[in-house]
Design goal:
Structural class: alpha/beta
Number of domains: 2
Order of helices and strands: HEHEHEHEHEHEHEHEHHEHH
Helix content: 40-55%
CATH architecture of the largest domain: 3-Layer(aba) Sandwich
CATH superfamily of the largest domain: Aspartate/ornithine carbamoyltransferase
CATH topology of the largest domain: Rossmann fold
CATH class of the largest domain: Alpha Beta
Bound molecules: phosphoric acid mono(formamide)ester, norvaline
Radius of gyration: 19 Å
């Protein structure tokens, strides 16, 4: 990896992504065969959470343990940053104790500031803008199920949110064709959209059927992300027709896979039937968070 941190998907070149995925595959193989891979012996990861998490929390903490290291969970409920201690001080001090910081929070600027003020690698575990660790796991899952990345068509149906932003950059970086179907007003972040629209492999559609036609991997995510709960009812109405269901999936390529970062709201962005038909791929995707993040930590902190 050429970057010291993983703050955004654009920190990674195609070669970086392929390096991470190759190591992630190795991590998965090792775990399946009970081979140890203790490259972070004696190292500690500080994990900062100002939003809820199941997968990110458990996969990072378990990943550190499996690599021979240790992880500390810090939440806004019980750490001083939750009482207003500046990031400058928190980042400076944590850098004197730990060997890496994972942060899940609202503003991307806060994650960027941890990298700016601290002296250890910082990994974005989700912000309002991006979720790069998720997309590394998703790319790993596509490759595992479909055997390739470059040349395949990825489709996103729903909110142009953090996961969508990172997917656009990640898929295009890997030479994939990326189609996004969002209702007007829910487009991806303008900077990411502007960069993507320079690439002929990118299409922004208003009709989910146009995006899903012949797609090899169909992605969706919740209509209201963390922090948007008060708009949930309005969003439910605004996203009418932007649901992944069996009818939409009938348009996708034969053997197309479905990806959902989870948690899922069955009956909203995805039907229970579509979820059940693709649950195996979705749970593989969740599992691959562990292997992909172990690869990232080994490369950044090893
Ligand atoms: N997909 C994901 O990041 O899940 P958590 O919110 O449970 O960490
Ligand atoms: N877009 C969702 C992803 C959760 C993992 C959110 O930000 O809440």
């Amino acid at each position: 990896m050429t970057s010291k941190h993983l703050l955004k998907m654009s920190d990674l070149s195609q070669a970086d992504i392929l390096e991470i995925l190759a190591l992630a595959d190795q991590m998965k193989f090792n775990r399946r065969h009970e081979l140890t891979h203790r490259v972070l012996e004696g190292k500690t990861l500080g994990m900062i959470f100002t939003k809820a998490s199941t997968r990110t929390r458990v996969s990072f903490e378990t990943g550190m343990f499996q690599l021979g290291g240790h992880a500390i969970n810090l939440t806004s409920a019980d750490a001083q940053f939750g009482r207003g201690e500046p990031i400058e001080d928190t980042a400076n001090v944590l850098s004197r104790y730990v060997d890496g910081i994972m942060i899940r929070t609202f503003a991307q600027q806060d994650a960027d500031d941890f990298a700016r003020y601290g002296s250890v690698p910082v990994i974005n575990g989700l912000t309002d803008l991006e979720h790069p660790c998720q997309i590394l796991a998703d790319l790993m899952t596509i490759r595992e199920h479909l055997g390739a990345l470059a040349g395949l068509t990825v489709c996103w149906v729903g909110d142009g949110n953090n996961v969508c932003n990172s997917l656009i950059t990640g898929a295009l970086t890997c030479g994939m064709k990326m189609r996004v179907a969002c209702p007007v007003g829910y487009d991806p972040h303008p900077d990411i959209l502007n960069a993507a629209q320079k690439n002929p492999d990118f299409v922004l559609a208003r009709d989910p059927r146009e995006a899903a036609e012949g797609a090899h991997a169909v992605f969706t995510d919740v209509f209201a992300s963390m922090g948007q709960e008060k708009d949930a009812q309005k969003r439910l109405a605004d996203f009418a027709g932007f649901q992944v269901n069996m009818e939409l999936l009938a348009l996708s390529a034969e053997n197309a896979i479905v990806q959902h970062c989870l948690p899922a709201h069955r009956g909203e962005e995805i039907t229970a039937a579509a979820f059940a038909a693709h649950a195996n791929e979705i749970y593989d995707e969740a599992e691959n968070r562990l292997h992909a993040q172990k690869a990232v930590m080994a490369l950044l902190m090893g």
